[in-house]
Amino acid sequence: xxxxxxxxxxxxxxxxxxxxxxxxxxxxxxxxxxxxxxxxxxxxxxxxxxxxxxxxxxxxxxxxxxxxxxxxxxxxxxxxxxxxxxxxxxxxxxxxxxxxxxxxxxxxxxxxxxxxxxxxxxxxxxxxxxxxxxxxxxxxxxxxxxxxxxxxxxxxxxxxxxxxxxxxxxxxxxxxxxx
Length: 179
Known about the structure:
The chain is α+β, with helices and mostly antiparallel strands and 179 residues long. 26% of the residues lie in helices and 20% in strands.
């Protein structure tokens, strides 16, 4: 009975979250399906992702992003729609630290959007992101946190510069591996 109630509450929570526009940008739409009743008479619920209106291509679609390191070396990668630039950098061995693992608690994933047109296509930074950016090394007018820059089709061709330093690297030159 308790498991059935927990599953019902979880299904209701997902249904409710998928209706919230701010959250639903990052989560695939979900549908609730009913399974056979369990022995105690309750019902089991499960969530299943539905394909998007364009036939599910959104999950497979990627944009081109170029990271420019402190020495001017460029690395061009393909980033799936919906992925943060921090995650994309880590998956492609690009030295973007992200000490807080994307929890918006540091400024070590600071990136500089090199093109103002692309910068203007990003959502406005939240107060929390601005607070962390205030701590970033080499802050510019087009600075953002990589964990908050999410790939979307209109950002295709995005160029991101990596600052010469962060406030979290150890003095001895140690460079932590992405988590």
